[in-house]
Amino acid sequence: MNGVELFLLGRALMKIGEEALPEPPGGAGRYAGSARLVLIVASDIAAHPDTAVGEIAVRTGLPQSQVSSAVARLKEAGSVQTAPDPADRRRVLVRQAAEVSERVAQVRAAGIEDALAKALGSDDPRRLREISEALDVLARNLLPQTGVPESRRADIAPSSE
What we know:
By secondary structure, the protein is mainly α. It is built from eight helices and three strands. Residues about 145-160 have low confidence and may be disordered.
């Protein structure tokens, strides 16, 4: 595999991931921006608690308007909380919600099997299991532990056998 193939594989995996995500309440058309943007912003907030929208925009390279929209969606879903910055009451700081909301639990519980079968053009259980296991190996080796949802950590933890 070369760099171009790796890049294209990454894009294909992102599309499968987006397909696997449950539709937001009210439908996807209700919101501006994609699930990808929301996930980028959510992961930045997880890595940088008590951060301002402008700081998220700088770190992610996303326009501030898209970050603001993503934060509004995350707040509506109960995934993040906002509070005035004690040092500058004009700024709002964003952090992950203390408790997992129903929507976050729904997104974390979403399986990839249907989206993977659609992308492969096959629902052959052996093939799906092989690809899923390969994805688990990649996740275990390439994602930071904090980047793996709690619901999947036990699934991808190295075996003690």
